[in-house]
Amino acid sequence: MTTTAPAPASAPTVPQRVRDLVARVTGDEKHDPSAHSTLDVVWTLYDQVLRVDPGHPDDPDRDRFLLSKGHGPASTYAVLAAKGFFPATWLDDVASFDSPLGHHPDRTLVPGIEIGSGSLGHGLPLAVGLALGLRGRTPARVVVLVGDAELDEGSNAEAIQVAGRYGLGNLTCVVVDNHSDNLGWPGGIASRFALEGWAAAEVRTHDQPRLTAALRRTVPDRPTVVVVDTTAKPGTTVKESA
Amino acid sequence: MTTLAPAAPALDLRTRFYDELDPLLDAHPHVDVVLAVIGSGYMSRAIERHPGRVIDVGIREQALIGVAGGLALAGRRPIVHTFASFLVERPYEQVKLDLGHQDVGAVLVSAGASYDVSAGGRTHQSPADVALISALPGWTVHVPGHADEVAEILHREAAGTGRVYVRLSGQRNTRPHPVDGRLHLLRDGVDAPLVVAVGPMLDTVLEATADLPVRVAWTATPHPLDAEGLRALAGPTPVLAVVEPYLEGTSAAAVAAALVDRPSRVLHVGVPGETELRRYGTPRDHAAAHGLDAVGVRTRLRSLLG
What we know:
Chain A is of the alpha/beta class. Chain A has 8 helices and 6 strands; from the N terminus they run αααβααβαβαβαββ. Chain A has helices spanning about 15-25, 35, 40-50, 75-80, 125-135, 155-165, 190-195, 210-215; strands spanning about 65, 140-145, 170-175, 200-205, 225-230, 240.
């Protein structure tokens, strides 16, 4: 079955002030693909989708965003700072000895960071456990961001299967697909989730209305995957299926 | 009207663990049980009476620990169980990161011990598990020697928040002893060398030393070691043996640290780590081959006595 998710009439692009915050982390004014590949997704989540309150970062009913691809935290740091989780001045000395912000984030040091990550393939299994623990107890959603190359790690396969079998409707996996996987994904990434019972959507990173709609969408009793192509040219066909 | 007498509690440690899960889930509403198939056939009452609280992830041990970490992040208290090889060794990075680095707790309960699965060969044996867990920050290791100790440890740790490893063995002692984390002197003797037996090694040590001039102390909690208790018992010039049912020398660093200011002579007895045995047979065969039966332990301890 293929459905079309309703698209908002207008959707935000990432404001320049947030891009400036990313630049404070990456240390230059130039466009840095590794820092920016996740920016559209993370900004859209925090600006349009997640129910989080920087004044209450430990609210038990908050939505959880898990950055599994922990080697690219600049955009997440910038968005959290823009939303007021911590002072923007923290962005100026990332990875110094006295900074709570490192090249891989540590949940115990940073308000708003839900998991410590950096070693690949840990976020999705943690997200599955988190979704299992929250399901039926709070309306919170769990959204985990992974990279297409990160999916190489076999731990993800285990987690995709468990989430599907347990029908975790409160779980969303966002795969930021910048086609960096060395061996590729014959047949595509979304189909691997769909086979395990996930509701799958494929969108382009710059198609803001569809990206927002896909990230907002949940399906009862089924986890959701949103594969976000960061390289697709405008006009490329995208599809959503459930 | 007649009433049936309640069934006697199981003596086997692993069976007692399974039997205890149903009352444990009743008593501790935050507890969930996470399995990777192993054990799921032995806890039908817990599964039936507590829908959704026994989570079997299939034969997926990375997910076993990852899911436990996620549950803990959600405020749950996961009790996680499978054989030690697949609970500690296979998902070791998950134990390190999904529990420790996230700064969350869990109760890992292993079966199999060092060579309970002697007929299964090396794939199902994990004598280094306590050493591996002890190498990570913030863990407590319990090695009970009696089923009643298992129940007490489980209920206490289910109510806690820490990272706990409970190692269940097919080997057991005839009597339970206090599982308060302390070292307990069970046989005294003036100025005699001290033998520290860990968990299920106690009865073997008592048999091995029945006519030897030694004192015998016991603990079910080798990590963190009761350093204060050891210092109190060891005296100013300690002559000491530690008999552990897992990798020989696992507690050596903790003992050395506790006695750093005293001239001491310490023997460590455990499962040798240099070679694979590559034999099947019974756990009793393996205990004898490793020098961990009463005869073997006695021989080693006599070398300490000189």
